[in-house]
Amino acid sequence: MTNLLQNKTILIAGSSRGLGFAIAQEVSKSGANVFLGSRNEASLAESAAKISTEVKYHILDVTRPESIEQWFAAAKNEFGKIDGIVVNAGGPPAGTFDTITEEQWNYAFNLTLMSAVRLVKGALPLMGNGGSIVFITSVSVKEPIDTLILSNVYRAGVTSLAKSLSRHLAPRGIRVNNIMPGRFNTERVKELDTFLSEKQGVSIEAIKEGYEKIIPMGRYGNPSEFANMAVFLLSNLSSYITGATIPVDGGLIKTVW
């Protein structure tokens, strides 16, 4: 997808590892100016260097409103305007309704839902007319996952936010879409597989094999396969797509809608 994003400036939150980092790699390959953000500055600098010496970054803690403001101020200072943003954050803690504390509910509210609200609010003044907002959610918004109640609840809220924004921002030429990842070879999924292995008293390999049996394509995804969808939605190839929630999951979820 070389040059699909030529001369565009794309901001990517939560981009020092995992799916966010994979998106940053593919966006850079597609010709865009890339601006990264995550909490760990050393990890952020290392990740940026792996992509290109041209990649810019600034520390970003999406749970802190002032950090989000500083991130956008740095992006504005670097580029002036932006053409797109990937709204992404680390996943909230795993657990069920009877194990999650009120403190964890509040933390996940800020991490998952309010970070999305604040990131969009910060991006819009820099976008003018036209552009693309891509939210990274989860297949749990279509089929709730028993051990991820925080993700089930708050990512569903993010999905509704995106749908509402798609209608509100269409007159400005700004498209808003969601991508739902399934099981990918990332640190986050390894953490979830570890949680399940401890909970069920089986090996991590057994957990992965169990998922591979119910994924029609028979394997976990490569992060670059997910990133390609983000590049498409950030590019002009998706110029008539807005308000969509798209799974990239190897066929894992069974829902029709």
Low-confidence stretches: none
Order of helices and strands: EHEHEHEHEHEHHHE
- As laid out across the biggest beta sheet, the strand order is 3-2-1-4-5-6-7
| Beta-strand content estimate | 5-15%
- Count of the separate structural domains: 1
User: What is the terminal-to-terminal distance?
Assistant: 28 Å
Specify the CATH homologous superfamily: NAD(P)-binding Rossmann-like Domain
Give the CATH topology: Rossmann fold
Q: What does this protein look like?
A:
The chain has 257 residues and is an alpha/beta fold. It has one domain: Rossmann fold. It is built from 8 helices and 7 strands, in the order E-H-E-H-E-H-E-H-E-H-E-H-H-H-E. It has helices at residues 18-29, 41-51, 65-79, 102-127, 149-169, 187-200, 204-214, 223-234; strands at 9-13, 33-37, 56-57, 84-87, 131-136, 174-181, 245-248. The chain has a 7-stranded parallel beta sheet with strand order 3-2-1-4-5-6-7, with helices on both faces. Helix 5 links the parallel strand 5 and strand 6. The longest helix has 26 residues, at 102-127. It is globular. The two termini are 28 Å apart. The model has no long low-confidence stretch (mean pLDDT 95).
Descriptors for this entry?
257 residues; alpha/beta; Rossmann fold; 7-stranded parallel sheet; 7 strands
Quick structural gist:
The chain is an alpha/beta fold and 257 residues long. Helix content is 47%, strand content 13%.
Fold blueprint:
Elements: E1 9-13, H1 18-29, E2 33-37, H2 41-51, E3 56-57, H3 65-79, E4 84-87, H4 102-127, E5 131-136, H5 149-169, E6 174-181, H6 187-200, H7 204-214, H8 223-234, E7 245-248
Parallel strand pairs: 1-2, 1-4, 2-3, 4-5, 5-6, 6-7
